[in-house]
Amino acid sequence: MLSLEQVKRSLEEAGQSHVLHFWPELCEEDRDSFLRELSQLDLKGLRDHCEEAAKAAASPTDILDQHLEPLPPQSIGSVRKSDQESLAAWEHEGLLQISKDRVGVLLLAGGQGTRLGVQYPKGMYNVGLPSSKTLYQIQAERIRKIQELVDVKHGSKCTVPWYIMTSEFTLAPTEKFFKDNNYFGLEPSNIMMFEQRMIPAVTFDGKVILQGKGKIAMAPDGNGGLYQALVDNMVLEDMKKRGVEYLHVYCVDNILVKMADPVFIGFCVSKGADCGAKVVEKAYPAEPVGVVCRVRGVSQVVEYSEIQPETAELRGPGGELVYSAGNICNHFFTRDFLQDVAQKFKSQLKQHVAIKKVPFVDTQGNQVKPTKPNGIKMEKFVFDVFSFSSKFVVFEVVREDEFSPLKNADGAATDSPTTARNSLLAQHCRWAVAAGAKLLDEHGNDLLPTTASVSAADKGPAQCEISPLVSYFGEGLEPLLKGKTLPTPFILSEERAKELQAP
Ligand code: UTP
Fold first, then answer.
1. How many angstroms separate the CA atoms of 57 and 44, rounded?
2. Using one digit for the tens of pLDDT, what is the confidence trace for 242-264?
3. Which atom, in ligand 1's list, is nearest to the CA of 115?
4. What is the CATH number of domain 417-501?
5. What is the model's pTM?
6. C-alpha to C-alpha distance for 216 and 37, rounded to whole angstroms
């Protein structure tokens, strides 16, 4: 730990002396923890960090239109446009890699989830499914199921290790939640949680924000903090020890995420890719999602704010959007590529500006909860490594099958607990109907196969939920559901599946 004098000098050099404004008022204990916090800061880099944040926030957004081009068709695969044979071949390849313990999954779970507005990690959120399962539980069960499918197909026991990146906000509650829930049936030694770094939030004039009299406002360094966190926590060494060559990286909030998706893994491996991104077709030109394309000949994600509407609206000869590859934070990386990023490229990652409301103490020592944005959080993005790839591919999947993120609290028009819940129920209705089941509504009336999965104005799809432990992606349901009439709410748990299987 540094001495008060050392910290004082460094803060002066960084133009941040105000940080110690309340020092004389602090008790011994608070002084001790504040000094500890300040000692851990990168004090040498603090001036640059604050100046860059203020400068970046004041700069206009880059408009990139004239440097854009779509990705070359040979680097794009698509579920919709591929024949069954190719899809089956990719799936076979993916399952084979999983059976050899070469595939791991990595969850980005360090975000603060401010838009959702709960005080606990987003993965612990229950979107109101009939089973009341949380996002973490759904994901854990998908890992268990894919392991089981591979074990049955290849006749041996495989492991898909689960790496979970957390932050100061999410590590302790996530650890406790997993322990309290007995790791959802997974082997604890195959779940590795680690923490990303935190950096100070800064005012528009480049001053570190004090959250309390003896506490700096810190925020996680963005999901692109992953690459530093991999180094800090020796994650790549762990992957190597386990023989993991391929990593599927995904966000905590997509309720439909296909973890370790064998089709996606198989596609990327077959193409010899070192880096890949799953995308969905943009719903409409102004949809606020990043688009995967090329800028000055290099693959990257371009934010919707960086493109003019005319460019976003450009259409090809078949009427399709030219820039339609919507990024869904679902990535494939080889371990070798991650090693390269960690060793050579991570310092080149771009810093993005996020303008947020950051609670602070004013100069009189009053606690203030700002009503409008007052602070800058600098973030790195996980997708900013695409430009370092030597073989980058994109795989387009069907949105209603694979993407429905939970970002906002209920009441918002999009990406809320209700939309996430409805997406999952609608998918499960489609699976049940495709397997030959007939669903009844809560009054015992027939639900038409075509309408069971559709949300009526004030009502979601039929309450049909299929446990991931029974089906990973709609497979294996016919023997259980064909010709069955099922009153809803219907939960197809493992126990129920056993009953339905019984002759
Ligand atoms: P979002 O950008 O949606 O941010 O994160 P968020 O923190 O979850 O929510 P808001 O913006 O505060 O409302 C996308 C994914 O990246 C992870 C999140 O946990 C989520 O899975 N993430 C984000 C990190 O792992 N670390 C970060 O520093 C930021």
1. 22
2. 999 999 999 999 999 999 999 99
3. 13
4. 2.10.10.100
5. 0.95
6. 8
